[in-house]
Amino acid sequence: MTDFSSLLQPDRGQPATPIHVVRPEEFASWLGAQPPRIRTAVAAHSLTGKPGDRAVLPGDASDTWSMLLVCDEAMSSPWRIASLGASLPAGTYRLAQGDVGGAGLGWMLAQHQFDRYRKPVGKPARVLLTSEVASIEPTIRLAEATAMVRDLVNTGASDLGPAELEAAVETLAARHGATVTTTRGAALASGYPMIHAVGQAASEARAPRLIELEWGDPTHPRVALVGKGVCFDSGGLDIKPSAGMRLMKKDMGGAAHTLALAGLVMGAKLPVRLHLLIPAVENAIAGNAFRPGDVLDTRQGMTVENTNTDAEGRLVLGDALTRAVEHRPALILDFATLTGAARVALGPDLPPLFTDDEALAAELIAASHAQADPLWRMPLWNGYDDMLKSDIADLVNAPDGGFAGAITAALFLRRFVPPGIAWAHLDVFAWRPTPKPGRPKGGEAYALRAAFAMLSDRYGGP
Fold first, then answer.
1. At 99, is the pLDDT very low, low, confident or very high (cuts 50, 70, 90)?
2. Keywords assigned by UniProt (predicted)?
């Protein structure tokens, strides 16, 4: 992984190239206050002050210069100077006006490369100085967590199956002194029948499992993070078309989010008893694959009529949520690449948030605004609960008709979380279809910073 620690450094007055970040509405007044050489350079570039305008500006001496960027991003945005983090020459830089704030994150992430499958492009480091020394380490941890999500999601399914996901959890646990318990085989079949059913058609090397990590003082509030870990989703016997299967290496994106979030919680030493649960499976096709029409047992005790083998994520999450509930946590957050309906409703960049807990909803939305990490609350509308009725079992996993698909999926998950336990479900895409500054096409973390900020605000530091 990229060494982010070298990219954001304390400002002790060392030599650095200035970066002028100017808002469009302030451009004219800023330009009017500059010396003639600056105004001449701006005119030579035909800059008018629109967002994205940039120029190299001459300095006082022949070998000095500064950078101008016109930007309409909010001061809190981590992406304010991300385009420069990816394009400036190697060197050391500081903002000419104000301090770095959240922009250090985008600066670092713009320099991250996923290089597992090709030789990395040699790009010498661009270092950003900040006087906010206390923010450096937390910002680096956020960059590392975001890069972890991106790298895990970008990794091909041939190199990231349930066993490799388990190894990633064990690596994180070793770093923070956490414990890992994995359930597989006969114990999984009897104890977590839906996880077993979804993953049973995969090869022995890619056998299903429930991976659990625990960390922290048992007397502290218990926080459960549940992440969908479908390492590849063929759709099962309700097979996806090739176009729909193309990106299904990313169907473990929920697990990647919760793994990264667990690392942030442990790295910050939040006073919680952390319980990470990842049901890791491959939804494959073989003679023993689970079928449409099968009635599945659940750890919770209900029965589920399987009406669509491509609605497998909610099945594995149901058993994992039941396990989390058994410890009576103060809070459960689940992340899942769960429904295409969520993308139809809100697009790739805006994850829907589902919760019945008004306080939790308010905290998450407030954190999303503060972190420039958007969420949009969607309804857990009881009127659609009847869509989950089955003629032969307690409920179906996928209602007919396709209406309100993201909502009915969330309502299905709610069946496994009893009233009285604060729970939120985030239906994330985990993929960026088009690049933006600091955010390349490919695996992406959504609502990660918002969730961590909420947990930090709710439970505080050590």
1. confident
2. Aminopeptidase, Hydrolase, Manganese, Protease
